[in-house]
Structure formats: C-alpha cells, structure tokens
Amino acid sequence: METAYYLVLCTCPNQATALQIAEELLGAGLVACINIIPNLTSIYSWEGKLIQSEESLLYLKTRKDKLADLEQAILTIHPYKVPEFIATAITYCNENFTYWMDGVLGGALREEE
C-alpha cells in the first residue's frame, strides 16, 4: 500500500547550510517540518578516496505530491555536487500529525480506505 507521507534524509556540510536550506524549503511550502541533527560523522567514498567529515542531517517531513519539487529544490540550492536525497514512505503516522502536515502543505492528500 502506498502512503501519502514521506520522510526525506539530506546531509549538509554544516549547521549554517542546513538552516539556510531548511528555511528555503519551508518558505517554498515543500515540507511541513524539518529536524536538523548537527555534528553527524559521515564516512563515504568520493572520487576514489575514503572521506570522513562532520555534517548536519536534515529530516524532512513532506507529502508524496511535493517529492519531485522538493528533490529539484534540493538539487538546485544544495552546495554538494551530488546531494543526498533519500525518501522513505511513512507507513504509520499519528492522524493528528498528518492533519497538521496537510494544513501546512495545503490541502489534503488522503488514501482511499
């Protein structure tokens, strides 16, 4: 069963960039809420080298109808050449939270029972 609500993960090079991206995405109405987790250690392979860096992680809550525009916005404003954009379906969420999300994001996108 497909869900209307998604959690998107996106790492940023620092707290200042995370805050700037969060403000832009919220201002554009693409997300209802963003949590920023600072001082995250990331280890990854980039251009043949093993990289370890401190990053901030964005947890973005949105709806399916906003995903494509959200991805395009992140690709446009993010400083990384290849920004992380991982969207995972929210299979269960408190109904009051989804009503709140719908209010923030405009309109409702409800699954048929």
Automatic annotation (TrEMBL):
- SUPFAM superfamilies according to UniProt: GlnB-like
Output one GO BP term.
Answer: response to metal ion
Domain of life, per the record? Bacteria
GO MF entry, a single one: copper ion binding
The record ties this protein, via InterPro entries, to: Ion_tolerance_CutA, N-reg_PII-like_a/b, N-reg_PII/ATP_PRibTrfase_C
Q: One short Pfam family name for this protein?
A: CutA1
Q: Which family does the record claim for this protein?
A: Belongs to the CutA family.
- Protein name, UniProt field: Divalent-cation tolerance protein CutA
Which species is the source of this protein?
Answer: Candidatus Berkiella aquae
- Tell me the classification of the organism that encodes this protein: Bacteria, Pseudomonadati, Pseudomonadota, Gammaproteobacteria, Candidatus Berkiellales
